From TrEMBL:
Listed name of the protein: Nickel-dependent hydrogenase large subunit
Swiss-Prot/TrEMBL keywords: Metal-binding, Nickel, Oxidoreductase
Highest taxon of the lineage: Bacteria
PROSITE patterns the record matches: NI_HGENASE_L_1
Compartments, as annotated in UniProt: Cell envelope
Family note: Belongs to the [NiFe]/[NiFeSe] hydrogenase large subunit family.
Amino acid sequence: MTNVTVKKLIEKIEGEAELDFTFNQGEIEDVKINFGFYRGIEEILRGHDAWDALVITPRVCGICNHAHLLAAVRAIENGYENAGLKINLTSKAKAIREFTLSCELIQNHIKWLYMTILPQLEKFVGAVSEENYAIKATYLASTITKALAVFSGQWPHASYAIPGGVTCDPTHLDVMQAQSLVDESIKFFEEVVIGLSIDDYLAMESVSCFSQIHGDFGKLLRLMLVNDMGDKGYSHDRFIVFGDSILAKPGRSIITNVTNVDISCVQENEQKGTVSKAVTYRDKFYEVGPLARGMVAKTPIVRSLHKRFKDSVLSRVFARIHEVALLLDYSKGLLNKLQLDEPSCVLNADVRLNDFDGVGTVEAARGSLIHKTTVRDGVITNYDIITPTQWNLGNSTKAEQGIAIEAMTGSLSIEEATFIFRTFDVCSVCTTQ
């Protein structure tokens, strides 16, 4: 089979994507990734009051709305500081923002485990079980989301974060309620997902410890190892992080060498045949997401995994579920240290600047999210949203293949390639802004 092109519609993602596969001698030689539905949130924002972004951008996505809210509020705060207004958030406001974002990442990761990657892997290798994964996903996701809503007031599409802090003023009873929900989530994660205590799990630093992991995560790992997923899905082995979080500081990793990043070197380019834009850093494609965060942060077990399996499907999947443990443990610590006597917000509502340029970065579930805003005479004249999926799913250039395309190249079947594609956790709605 030489130079045969086959189209495949990818559903059961956030939106839809079309993949055009080119086969040569029975192997996938090239892939075109097409997103056909344009959202236009960036255009909607133009002409609006600067603070309207706090209400509109969370509507970009139904499962990453807090990430978009925080990127929007950080863009305004950064713009204020660029214009000369210093903002010193209280530790209380910082902790609440970090807690809600951590909860959002946990529910996102766990839904991906149970509703995408585990059932899709079983289908691909012909080992379909009778497990009701949707119930497990719903239980943990809904439990941790209730903890999130204690502070945000609702989920999704909350706008509790504002320039200078947050709108909520939690009581000790609120914190106790959130602590109980986090404890319940940790218990489920220990008993069902990993089959051991979270402390014992987090003490692991080497691939040699994989045999100690049980539960559904252990099942997933064994299924991947048996089916050689450590040898599939290799990409460029380049990683980048722009958000500053507990998971990683900003930086880029090429193999194991970590260096600083400059956000001004991010390039966003139009692509033919799709409404999505491709994103590069100094003209090169970089992978974003949990594996990138683990490599940039030099997380011991992720680095151990990478040393053996490089940037494979196995490494990518493991890094994402590993973050659930890190975030659950971190979230509990945030609540224990929350200073309720501090102000929730350090800016008065009537403090407004009419002219500024700001950039906000957040580590969302799928990777680095960037919001750029330009405000003149109090209204938005330009708004740019750069999402993680744009980094990972950009089409190839003359110089090199995109991240996911490189990972799919060489696959022997569409089924194998689309499984690799899903390990990047495709989000169409975030991509086409």
